């Protein structure tokens, strides 16, 4: 006789709580009370006869049983979603893509129409609000590598970095030393990693380490930093992959031709099972082709 299945609602709350490692945040995402989450998790643990979570020093974490159970629950929800998509529209496949906000706005979205024209049967859902839970998406573009047995990490592209500003500001810059009289715009966010280049590193490689790189306003993401440069508020350190459209449109220029070795790597990260999808295969190949086109 087949065993009974656990309650679907409890499984959903388990997946969200495990992803966020917080009952409080899970309750907020699911629009229920903390008590409701706790009750459903307890109900699931009683059904399984196993403890899924443990709390140490006010930190919630998965037990070994929870770690083992989570990927299987995620795969079950993914299969259920795919089956529902196929039932509601058997001609369309949904592909979930996650990117950092600036890369999505400045690089992916402006060229996405080319993919959609080639593959009208693939419905692409792009998200920039991700907490690096790579299992939730079919493919993620990120500048940080991960090491997990159930994920595939491929080198996607790398981007040079160089100063950018609007055309009017560029008329006041003839050489690297002129940057000492300019306002430097900085990107400083919680998501910014130490491996991403900053002004101090660029100036050191350019032979201008004596310039004070600590001054100038800071912004929480690259989009605001680049917009400030477009508006003439100073000079930003831009990634080529993020500024090529603004340069082509004349909103930004590269005032100095100085080349340095600093680069920002990007990776394609995806669950192993995602590679079995035709939609994934054609989108991955399209990404690679677009990266080559960007240079």
UniProtKB/TrEMBL annotation:
This is Glycine cleavage system transcriptional activator. Pfam families: HTH_1, LysR_substrate. Belongs to the LysR transcriptional regulatory family. Transmembrane segments: none annotated. GO terms for molecular function: DNA-binding transcription factor activity; sequence-specific DNA binding. Signal peptide: none annotated. SUPFAM superfamilies: Periplasmic binding protein-like II (SSF53850), Winged helix' DNA-binding domain (SSF46785). Keywords: DNA-binding, Transcription, Transcription regulation. Residues 6-63 form the HTH lysR-type domain. The gene is gcvA_7. PROSITE patterns: HTH_LYSR.
């Amino acid at each position: 006789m087949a065993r009974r299945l656990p309650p679907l609602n409890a499984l959903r709350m388990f997946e969200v709580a495990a992803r966020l490692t917080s009952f409080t945040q899970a309750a907020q995402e699911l629009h229920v009370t903390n008590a409701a989450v706790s009750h459903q998790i307890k109900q699931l643990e009683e059904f399984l006869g196993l403890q899924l979570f443990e709390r140490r020093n006010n930190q919630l974490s998965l037990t070994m049983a929870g770690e083992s159970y989570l990927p299987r629950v995620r795969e079950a929800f993914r299969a259920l979603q795919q089956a529902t998509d196929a039932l509601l529209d058997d001609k369309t496949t949904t592909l979930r893509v996650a990117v950092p906000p600036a890369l999505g706005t400045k690089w992916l979205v402006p060229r996405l129409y080319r993919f959609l024209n080639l593959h009208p049967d693939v419905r692409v859902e792009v998200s920039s609000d991700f907490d690096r839970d790579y299992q939730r998406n079919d493919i993620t573009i990120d500048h940080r590598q991960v090491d997990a047995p159930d994920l595939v990490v491929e080198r996607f592209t790398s981007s040079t970095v160089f100063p950018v500003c609007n055309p009017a500001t560029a008329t006041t810059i003839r050489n690297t030393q002129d940057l000492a009289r300019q306002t430097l715009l900085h990107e400083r966010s919680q998501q910014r990693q130490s491996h991403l280049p900053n002004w101090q590193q660029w100036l050191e490689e350019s032979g201008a380490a004596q310039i004070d790189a600590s001054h100038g306003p800071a912004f929480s993401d690259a989009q605001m930093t680049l917009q400030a440069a477009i508006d003439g508020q100073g000079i930003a350190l831009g990634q080529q992959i993020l500024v090529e459209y603004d340069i082509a449109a004349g909103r930004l220029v590269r005032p100095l031709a100085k080349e340095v070795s600093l680069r920002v790597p990007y990776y394609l990260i995806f669950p192993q099972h995602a590679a079995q999808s035709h939609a994934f295969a054609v989108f991955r190949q399209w990404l690679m082709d677009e990266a080559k086109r960007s240079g």
